[in-house]
Amino acid sequence: MRRRLVLLLLTFASSPALACDPPNNTPVTRCKNHPLEDYDPWTCEVTAGVLEKRSGVYFETGSRNEVATVWATLRVEKGTLRVVYRDTKGEPQNIDVVAGTESKLEMKTKLNDKRSFGLTLEPVGGNVEGFSATVHYASPPSGS
User: What is the pLDDT of residues 41-57, one digit of tens each?
Assistant: First the structure.
């Protein structure tokens, strides 16, 4: 009986289905902050193997300021991806990222009540493969 229990535990422990990696079609965001620099800037890497439908990625600032300044470099290996964001007035804006090119996004965006902002990722005309982005952001005080 004990031997069966050990074998069962070893089987489940080594099972790839129990791995901690997210699905290939989910955007993954990994961020690090730079606490010794002005305005608490952050750098995030966002990746997704395949995007089949609209997805959102969100970035927290922890800032008491109302606006974040964002710089991003976006790439896709296959397909076209529309990235939607909101400007300082809350109006939606977008940029299309086309396979084989590198798109740059510079914006100021109003932070929501949770002191964060988001980007909506929308595949255009079919699935998008090989999405990657580097997103830098900071929240300087108004007037800076």
Answer: 899 999 999 999 999 99
